Every structure is written in structure tokens, then in C-alpha cells.
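Hey, quick one: can you model this chain's 3D structure?
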Amino acid sequence: MAEDVGALLRRLRERAGLTQEQVAERSGVSVRTIRRLENDRSTNHRVATLNLLADALGLEEGDRLLLAAALAGSPAGSPAVAATETAPGHDAGTRSGPRPGREPTQVQVQAQAAAPPDGTPDGTPDRTPDRLPVHGRLAEAAEELAVEVRRRWRREEAQRRVHDPFPLPVRWTPAPAALTDRAENIQRLGPGEPPRAVDLDGDLRSLAEVYLRIPSGRLVVLGRAGSGKSVLTIRLVLDLLESRAPAAQRRVPVVFSVGSWDPTTTALRDWLVGRLLRDHPHLARRGPGGATLAAALVDGDLVLPVLDGFDEMGEGLRRDALDALNATATPLVLTSRRDEYAEAVRAAHAPLVWAGCIELSDLTPEDLADYLPRTARAVPSSARTGDDAVPGSAWDAVLTELRTGTGPAHRNLAAVLTTPLMVVLARTLYSESGDRDPAELLDGERFPSVRSLSEHLLAGFVPAVYRRRAPERDAGGPPSGARYADAVRAERWLGRLAHHLVRTDRERHDLAWWQLGHELSRTARTVALVLATAVVVALADWSVGLLLVPLPAGELLLQGALMGPAAGLGFGAVYAMVDRSGGAAAFEPTRFRLTLRASRAGLGRRSLRTFLARLGQGLIGGTVMGIGCACALTLQRALATGAPLAHPDVVSGTLINMLVFVLIFGPAAGLVFGLMAALEAPVDVSTAATPVSLLASNRATAGRQFLVLSVALTLAIAFGGYLVVAALRTVMGPLNWGVQDSLFIGTVCGLGGAAAYVLAFTAWGQWIVLARVWLPLAGRLPADPAAFLDDAYRRGVLRQTGAVYQFRHERLQHHLGRAFRGAHRDFAPAAFGPDSPDGRPGDRLSGDRLSGDGGPGDRSPVTGDGASG
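Sure thing. Here's the predicted structure for all 869 residues.
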């Protein structure tokens, strides 16, 4: 089969008059892959790759059938092949492509190779929507997305130790009728059609079956804090990916943290596309019609949005979000706390339309009796049969109290140990620690209320996980995690990160490495970047000066020390303008790489607005830097020669230098930065994005930006400066500017300017300046924040959601943030009201946030200094 496919591909390519490089450019398939296919060195053909090649060659139906027959191993004389060999328009020596006046027939290799020409395997036509051919590139993108999602959440399940020793039972019942749409609407019935009964009862093992019973494909999962919504979501995604149901095959379930969506400014479709591009950068490649693959997947109904954390949205946004969801018929899954969802339903006067709704149930003492003893070491029991001790568990006293107790300890334990979150915290604190006895949970004087017992479990989680984990030694490197074994420092850093996520309007949950520097005020960020850019420009001046300018060492040091701050002010001015105008989003990790081969499609995709914005920023920055450099040059000469600054000749020379430098630096910087847009092309990323991999990818992108910018700026300023001075000589008379001056100033500005641009206007640069240097020097973060975050993830404190981290649970984030604010002199300690009659924590008395189970207090902003800390 492989030989037939390779020979056929080579013949079709040669008939089309295309080289392998041209086919690669059209299809997006690498030249190496095409060469392997044509030379019969690949036997594991991917049908999506063959579809891309067929599109690039412009094959019509006949040639596609011929390629499908070769892929399926049909004999050369079969009727299917014979019919295609004589198809019109396929004479030898002519290019097979769309004929004028006729649209090409999109017969996909995948569909032809999987079934006989008549349709289904039994020969009957099949035109159901889930069996209709999908464009080859979209099919491949959906397949890659499914693989990434499956790998990501399997790893997350393992990190959470969900199956150790077995998953905690998560059950549910149908939600109240007031929170659920009518049965006729859920089943999408017409007028007068009686609804049938749909059983929504089940447990963790049957969630996918329950979801697939809902004709509308829309489901709402409700539960209080820690009730297992996240674990349920993960299991639903994995079960749907493993399901063979047609609906599950067509749509790829993807988890989105809906708390970051602002429905008043961003449409649901655009927000979903943006999250896909952030977490799966390879979907930035172009699909059918020129749109990104992420947009094509969403528009093609190939993504099942699993919207996790509706309750985490700002209180004033939930009604708008529910209205926006009700305006669509897209199948989706939504998770939320019950009270917040019920409040949004009352405000919108309608639940999520067409959606079934379930509510998670509490764990029972029997569930704990089955689970907790199997997580702990076996201990001898006092009960005896003859002379032999009966094996027992460290949890025996606690379980006995839960079964038979009636006092305050029983009431508190029964209220706390009913959610998977609290059970997992108790397991971590006691079962996985050899020096603590869970019987201390029965101390009524130490834990007189539900709140005190909950806070004890939350407070003990971080010290427990940082105590119990042994360092892991990487090959050839130091033990990972050894530097963060100090639980006190780790808890302080985690508390600061939790506080960093607090905003005055609502709380965020995505802990992104490129946003850590935003903990600093705008002024502090600007000052830090001015200093950083001043340092790199000064270093460039000194380095180039040693090679090209025969100046005394003292004068050269003085020149760099003055030129650096002048350039730093230029870059700082541009950064301050961009940051204040809300352009900080431009500093997110780029999804593009620089290439010297700019395709027509790439040029067309870059908007004129982006080009003009970069042109304007370059002009402003170059102007400020030109004025500053002229003043620095005058000051340097005055200090070196002792000439008075107020002398008319000095003032005149300074003004002339300002004019010359502004005319050189401004247009050069503006044109180079503007043309950067035309030299960008999508990155071809085939692996799932993680915070660490995205950081590494962005570092490589910043390196390429530096190389291209340094060369472009050097040439633009060196040659442009020479031409500008030559033109000004005709008007202003003799000017002192030689070839050596052009080379020196051009090289310094090229190297220093490119380095300063990378540090000030890329996500990786700001990560280096703010998160790796400034914040660690101030004691606000560890010396290696990336290693610390990865270590916290491996210990189970954080989880990975695409390119960002999140705290394992919202209540843990609240607890750590509150503990940090309580220990910080700028924040008043939290004061809580009495517990409510139903055992839930009372409302707050001070301006701090609660970590309780729902209620308006959980959504109130902190007082004090906002998120600056």
C-alpha cells in the first residue's frame, strides 16, 4: 500500500508542476514528511495529512478517489480505480485542479478509505450530520485537540490522586424544577409532542451516559464548594473522549474556566476562540476560509464547551452571562454553586434554556468508612479475638464518632467531612503524615465550630504537602523542590500569589507567569523597565565602543552611563503610554514567530491598524530617545572637556544633534517595529501548551525577535543616518558624521534597542525583569518563580489549566490569600461572624473575603490597597 501511495503522490505532484517545497508551503506539511511519503519510507499514513496534500495539489473527485483506493489497498484494476482513471480533465501532463465555472468536489480521503463508494460499510447511503465529511485540516486539528485534552486531564487526575485508592463517590439528584428548563424544551420537542422521561440520576461512573441521554446536549452541574464539581468535570471529559457515541466523536470536550469571561465586552464565541488559542497555540494555524483552526473548530461545532466555575464570575456579570448562553443553542456543560446559579436564574427570569440540571449530593459516613481507612497505615486495634489483635485504622475513633456520636464534635465533623475537598484535606493532613493523629479532630475545645475545623484543615494542607514530599533529583541537576521545602516561606509565597489574583471588581483564578509582574504598581513597573533598558543600552554602548571607537576608558564609561538612561527614558515613555491606554494585553505570550519569508496570506492578515500602532510607538520612542541622546552627548562632552553648558555653541550643537537624532531614530524605529507585523507567521506547535512549555516557546520567540530587530535596526540607523546627514548638509552646512559614526551608533542602537524592546514589550522580557529580578530582590517571590510554581503543581497545591496555573481549589486560594493579608501590615485581619443555624459559616464583619460555602460574602472585594499588595 505504501508504495502505491508514494508513487501516486509523486505522479500527481509532478503532473501539477509543483516542487516538494511548493506543496509544503501550500499544505503546511513539512518537506521532510512529503519526501518520506513519496519515497515509501512511511507506512503509517495519516489520512488528515493526505487530505492536506490533496487540497494543496488541487485534486478533484477522480484523483481523490484514486488516492483513497491506493490508501485502502484496492487493486489497480478495480472498478473504482478504473472509473477514476478516465475521468474528464485528468489528461496526462495537465494540472488537476478546479476547472473554471465549477466548484471542486470535496471528497475526502478519510471518508473514501473508511467505507465503500456507496456510503456505509453495508452499502447503504449515510447522510447523517455526524457522518458528513469534515475538512481534512479540521479533522486533524480536532484529533490533535482531543489527544491534548485527554493527555492533560489524565495527568491532572493522576496529580490529584483521584484513583488512589479509588475515586470518592460523587452522586447527584435532579435539581429543583425552578432551576431546570421544561422537559419539552430539554428534549427539543415540537408543539404537542409529549415529553418522555429522562433519567438523570447517577454517580461518577455514569456521568457520560447521563449527559448523552439529554437530547439538547446542555447540562448544568450544581454543588456547594468542594462538593466534587471539578473531579466530575474531569471524569466527564475523559469519558466522553473514550465514548464511541457519534455526538462524542464529533465534538471534543474542552474545559474552560468561565470565571474569566466578561460577557459585556466579549461574545461567547470570541472568548472560546481566545481561550483555545492561549491554551493550544497550534490552533493559531489557518484553516478553511483563512480563519484560525480554533475559530474553525468553534464555528464548525466541533468543540463541546465545558464551562467550569459559573459562580466565580463577578456578581454583576452572571445575569449577562446567562442571557448570552440562552441566546445560543450550542451544546455545553456548565458548573456552578447552587446559590449563585439560582440568583442568576432569578435575575434573568429563566434557567439555562434546553439544559438538564443535576445537583451533587453530600458524602455519607458509610462513604468515609470505606475510603479513609484505606488511605492510612494499619494499626493494631484494642478489640481482640482471643490473643490476636484485629487490624484497625487511625481513623477508627473519628469514624465511630460519625456513626454513633451526638455531641458538638459529631455535629462539626458531620458538617465538614461531607465534601470531597475536606475529605482530601483530612487525608493529606493525617493519612499521609506519620506524626499526626486524626483523633485530634474530636477536640471540641480546640475546634468549637464548623468554621474553626474547616480552617484547621485548610491551614494544615500546605505545611503537610511541603513536609511529606522528598526531593526528586533530576539527571545531572540539583534535587527539584529542595529549595522550597520550607513550609513557612512556601506558604508566604503562595499567599502572595493568591492575593495577587484579587481585584476590586472580582477575583481571578488563572495564575499566569506573564502577569506576575502586574502585582507591582504601574509606576513601579515603568521604573523597573526604564532601569532594565538603560542597563542593556549602556552595556551595548560599552561593548561596541571597545571595538569601534578609540576613546579613553573613562570617557567611554561616561558615555555609556549617560546614553543608557536616555534610551531607557524613551522606552519607558512608550511603555507607560501603552500600559496606561490598556494595551497591557499586547504583552501576553506571542503566538507568532518571525520568518524572513512572508506569504501573501500572512501580509493580508495583518491589519493596517496594527502596523500604524507599531509605527507610531516607534516614532514616539525614537523621538524621545533622540532628544535624550543629544542631551547625553552634550553632557558627556561638557564633563570631559569642561565646556560650559550655557555656551551658545554648546546650545546650538545640542539643538542640531536633537534634530539629527530625531530624524534618524524616529523613522528608523517606527518603520522597523511596524514592519515586524509583516514578518510574522503562525507557529506550528504540535504539543499541548503548559506554563513551562509556553515559557520556553516564548523565550525562543524573544530570541528570534532580538536577532531580526538587531540586524534591522542596525542597518536602518547606520544607512538611514548617513543619508539623513547627507541631506541635511545641503541645508545646514558641514556636519560631523562619518562612516565610523554610522557604524558605531547603528550597532549600539541595533543591539541595545533590540534588547530593550524584548525586555519592555514582550511577555518573556517582562517576566525576566519583573518576576525573575525585581520581585525576588524585593523578597516577594522566590529566586526562580517558574521552578517554584512547577514544584507547587507537583505537590498538588496548584493545578495546570492549559498555559496557566490555578489553585487546587477556590477555598484554598481564599484561605491562603486571607492568611497573607492578615499577616501584612497594610491589611486588617479577617473577622468572621457567628455560624449560621444550618452550620455554614456566617457573613464577614471586616473587609476581607470569606472561604465559606457560598453566599454574597464570597464575592465581596477586599479593602485596602486593591491588588497591589
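One thing worth noting: The CA atoms of residues 714 and 749 lie 7 Å apart.
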